Amino acid sequence: MDVRSQISMVFHLDKCIGCHTCSIACKNTWTDRKGAEYMWWNNVETKPGTGYPTKWEDQSIYKGGWEKDSHFLKLKGAGKVKGLKNIFHNPNMPEMDDYYEPWTYDYSKLFDAPESKDQPTARPVSLVTGKPMQVKGGPNWDDDLSGTPDYARQDVNLKNITQAEQEAMFQLEQMTMHYLPRICNHCLNPSCVASCPSGAIYKRGEDGIVLVNQNKCRGWRMCITACPYKKTYYNWNTGKSEKCILCFPRLETGQTPACMHTCVGRIRYLGVMLYDADMIKTAAISNESDLVTNQMEIYLDPLSPAVIKAAKENGISDDTLEAAQKSPVYKFVKEWGLALPLHPEFRTIPNLFYVPPLLPTMGKVEDGNYHNSAKELFGGIENTRLPISYMASLFSARNEEIIKDVLKKLMAVRWFRRDETVGDQNKEQLEDILKEVGVTREVADDIYRLTSLPTVKERYVIPPAHREEALEMIEDSGDVKGNTGFGFHHKPTRGL
Amino acid sequence: MYNDFIFIGLPYAALFLFVVGSVIRYRTKPFSVSSLSSQLLESRILYWGSHAFHIGIVTLFFGHLIGFLFPKSVISFTGHPTRLLIIEISALAFGLLSLFGIVTLIYRRLAFERLKNITSKMDIVVYVLILTQVISGLWIAYFDRWGSAWFAVSLAPYLKSIFLFSPKYEAVAAMPLSIKLHITSAFIFVGMVPFTRLMHFLVYPFVYIIRAYQFVIWNWDRKTRRSSTDFNRGVKARNN
Question: Which residue of A38, A353, B80, B185 has the smallest Cβ count within 10 Å?
Answer without folding.
Answer: B80
